[in-house]
Each structure stands twice: as C-alpha cells, then as structure tokens.
Amino acid sequence: MMQLHTMRKPEQNRAEAPRFDLYAEAFRAGQELYKTGLLAVVNSHRAALKKPAVDWPRVGATKYEEVWREGSARLLKYEAPASKAVGLPLLLVCSLINRPYILDLLAGRSVVDRLRAAGRQVWLLDWGTPTDESAAFGLEHFALGLLPRAAAVVCKASGQPKLHVLGYCMGGTLSLMAIAAGKLPAASLIALATPVALHDDGLLSLWCRAPGFEADEIVRHYGNAPPHLLQPAFKMLDPVGLATKLVHLEDKVGDDAFVTFFLAMETWLEDSVAFPGRAFGEWVRMYRDDALAKGTLALAGKKIDLSAVDCPILTMIAESDYITPAASSLAIERLCPRAKHTLVRSPGGHIGLATSSSSQKKLWPDAARWLDAVDASLAGLVQSPKKPKPKKARS
Known about the structure:
This protein has helices at 10-13, 22-48, 111-117, 139-158, 170-180, 203-208, 215-222, 227-235, 239-251, 256-269, 277-289, 291-294, 326-335, 352-355, 357-377, and strands spanning 2-3, 64-70, 73-78, 90-93, 122-126, 163-168, 186-192, 297-299, 302-303, 313-318, 341-346. With 395 residues, the protein is of the alpha/beta class. It has a single domain (52-376), classed as Alpha/Beta hydrolase fold, catalytic domain (Rossmann fold). The strands form 2 sheets. Strands 2-3-5-4-6-7-10-11 form an 8-stranded mixed sheet, with helices on both faces. A 3-stranded mixed sheet has the order 1-8-9. It starts with a strand and ends in an 18-residue tail after the last helix.
C-alpha cells in the first residue's frame, strides 16, 4: 500500500532558506513585461483598424459572500439565482495550483452563472495562496480536512444533509478521495476533466514518471513548488498552441468579444500559484505509482478505495485534453462500479470545458438538468428551506 507519510517542514530540511530567488523575481518581472507588451501590441493593431483601445477585463465578477475561512482557504457563496433556488446546493472544487475564477471568467463565459441561471445555489472552495506553512500540508489536509469542513458549512447553511460536488481536474481527484473515505456527503459528483488512472500516455504523466525527476528535491529547496517552475512546464505540454495563439489573436484583433476573452484567459494563465510542498511530492508519487487506480493509496492511515463511491457521477471529458487525457478520466467507471455513471464527451481541450462558447451554450445547461434529475431521484432527501418561527406578540 502506498502510505503518504508526513514530511518534515521545509525549514528543517534546508540548512539555509534562500531569501532571494533570482528565478522567481525574473519570472514575475517577465510576466509583467509580457502583459504590458501584449496589451500595447493589441491596442496598436486595433488603432490601425480604427478600433478603440482595450484594457485588461475584470475576471471573476459574479457577486459572492465569503462565509468561511481557514488558513488560506475560503468558502464563497455566490449571489442567489434570480429564480428560487432548487435542489441541493452545489460546491465547486478546483485544482490547488490554479485560481478558481476559471469557472467564473467573464459574463457569458461563466460556469457559475450558467448553473445559477438554472436555479442552482452555487458555492466555491477557494484554496487560496499557499504560505510557507502550507509546505507541510499533504493531500490529506486538503482532501480529508479542508474540503469536508467546507462542505459541512454548506450543508449547515443550506439546511440539507447532502450536497452536489463539481470537481475540476485535481479538484475532482481530491473530491473522489474524500467521498471514498466517507468524509464528503456527496449526493453526486461532476468529474470535470478529472485524472484518475495516472499511467496514461499524456506528456504530464510521462514527465512525472521520468527517472530523473525528483519532486522531493524541489520541496527540499523551495518548500512549495513555485509557479516559475510549474507554469512553464504546463505551457510546454502544448508547444504548438503556445506558438500559434498569438497568430490567431492577430487575425481576430478587431473582434471585441474575442479580444476580451483572450485577455481574460491570459490573466488567468499568468495567475497561477505554488503547489503546497508535501502535497506536491505526494501528487507526483501518485503519478509514479498509479496508486489511486491500483487501490494502494492511503491518506492519514486510511486506504482510499474508489469502489466505495456510490453516488451518481457525471464524467466530462475533452477529446483534445493534453493535461487529463480521456483514458485517465474514463477509468472512473471501472474503478467506481457502485456508482451510476453518465459520460459526456466534448470537442476541444481541458480549459475549453469551462470557458468555450459551445460549452457555455450546451454542456453546462445539460449538466444543470442532470443535477435536477439526481435531485428528483432522491425522494425525501432534499428538504425545504426552514421557515423562521413566527414571533409571539408581546402583551
């Protein structure tokens, strides 16, 4: 069995913690230089077309209330839908290393808004920005600690015994771990581009399993795996797309909607965060050992057996996903035999599942109807909101 042991804090592993990281500073400076130059070039081309100048768009604009915080993590409750909320609440869970506003990128490109428009009360767990202390946190801290505690807040606030969970990429994997461990009262799971069987033929899997790659060395040196190491690696998973996206932009620089979307995506792509150190080492070892799929993974001394998952699962995959290849997600049906499975295949890539215009028009309204069907099947479970007791008149 693959047992994930507690690592010593990075401060104990390093004789001297570097106070100045030249690569990190150069990376941040390069990001700002790129963004400044990109906007200048875009507006120069638009001026030649007699189009007005643009600025960086506001992302993640749907109104929300922060209702809970623990460490860097916080729980967001989005503004109630215009119509009366129906069914169980929905909790969104994203990757540890990406900002969650990818699910609320722009008006018209927002998964949050699509689900709210369908009458769903939407919550989101934002893992936040890792601190030096985060380097000591392993996967169990997130999957079996923070996630269940956030879910408990959602259930208590909504007066419901269960909730729906939407896990995006790593967020889906963490959610599966929590459900399998009996820590998450999930009425259903939407597994969006969720890696499960990790010995796939994707480049990310090959890199993680490469003999010369030692994740623990990165952890020992940095504490948390920094963005200036991770972000360039993820960009190189799709070198052709990286090289051609600016050519595509030049062709459509006069299209206001396209330019706004392009700049919003660049905002998100340049806004990645560090991977908490111990969790990073454990995640890479999961890829090496394919431990989740083989049933050899243990968190906090408890075996993570996916065959224990029995809630309905909607698996969404993108045919051209180079981060989570289809085969990695498709294994969920074999590994969770007690669950009722629904599969949706979409064209495009990993991020397009959340942001493409076709996904917004078709995929997410369909997902909302799937949630409605799950609620309808849970006869007697979904409770009506509690009405406040009338106050007695004073004599």
